[in-house]
Amino acid sequence: MIRGDSVHARNRNKAEILKRELEARFIACGLEMHPTKTKIVYCKDKSRKGSAPNTQFDFLGYTFRARSNKCKRTGEIYERFLPAVSTTAQKAMRRKVKELKVRQKTQYSLEQLSKWLNPMLRGWINYYGKFRRSELDSVFRHFNKTLVRWARRKYKQLKRHKGKAVAFFDKLSVREPKMFAHWQFGSARGRFRLRAK
Q: pLDDT tens digits for 12-47?
């Protein structure tokens, strides 16, 4: 069965046959399959408990693999083959924040920073937050640390006081949870709090 850019088969043997047939068809069309990106993956979940060399794959910034899942109706925890933002995509987002040199933009007010950065943050949340939104936490912790560094450069009274800068943003995220897009989710109370660590 073909779904998007993936082909599903009942077992490994059928998958190998299908792969050979697709390779032949590609060659007939003057194309070739990418040797490292084309692989057979075992989609492990509650009903498929076997093992295989490949049990996950990355596609369009997501990693698809077996993940713990809780049934809302029964509370049972079981495995499902599900997507979440990939490690590669997380690194790219952190790199993007670094490339923007946010902490050097001390000429900006908080409101200007928010207006400048929120479209990017909302884009990440809307795209990668569809599945396992909590997997974005490491990216947003990095972003929050960048905000703390920015504040310590901008405000003299915070320069030598990381704890005070963290406390400032902690209070601000409670008072103005919509200032930065990622503050609206992430904890049980609906905001992403900073931590002094």
A: 888 888 888 888 888 899 988 888 778 877 777 777
Residue given tokens 């209070």 in the structure block: 171
**Given the structure tokens 């200032």, which residue do they identify?**
179
Q: Which residues contact 15 (CB under 8 A, 6 or more apart)?
A: 7, 9, 40
Beta strands in 17-76 (DSSP E): 56-59, 62-70
Alpha-carbon distance of 126 to 9, in angstroms, equals: 31
Tell the residue number behind the tokens 């400032």, with chain if given.
168
Residue reference for tokens 């795209």? 127
3-state secondary structure of 114: helix
The amino acid that residue 101 corresponds to is K
- Across the chain, mean pLDDT equals 84
The DSSP H or E segment spanning 89 is helix 87-99
Q: Give me the residue spans of the domains in the chain.
A: 12-85, 87-175
What is the value of pTM for the model shown? Answer: 0.79
